[in-house]
Amino acid sequence: MIQSVLTIGIILTAVLVILGLFLAKTLNKASMGGYYPGIFSAFTGLLLVLTSSILGRVDIMGAGLGGWGIAFMFAGAISLIITSIFDARANAEA
Q: Which residue ranges traverse the bilayer (predicted)?
């Protein structure tokens, strides 16, 4: 189960980083649109973790709802960090 959660988290992180960087690059400087994928992912992870404690054991592709929630929160946090570093460097150069 740990291996599937790590794999899901790494794949989600890559997708969210690419999406966040694309949105940060295409939108204007004042827009916070590049941060929305990470925020949405972290919120979804929190909901999945809370749902897993209510529903009990539900497996999806080798990981329970709690594992999916942890993977989503991990991906959201890492993508927010990388997007904010990229956005800060882009705004400092302009």
A: 6-23, 35-55, 67-86
- Residue environment code for 40-49, b if the CB has 16+ CB neighbours within 10 A, otherwise e: ebbebbeebb
pLDDT of residue 94 exceeding 60: no
Q: Are 34 and 20 in contact (CB under 8 A)?
A: yes
Do residues 13 and 74 touch, judged by C-beta distance below 8 A? yes
What is the model's pLDDT at position 93?
66
Q: pTM for this one?
A: 0.86
Own/partner pairs for 61-64, CB < 8 Å, 24+ apart? 61/4, 61/8, 62/1, 62/4, 63/1, 63/4, 63/5, 63/8, 64/1
Spell out the domain ranges in the chain.
Answer: 2-93
The Cα angle at residue 40 between residues 34 and 44, in degrees rounded to 5: 160
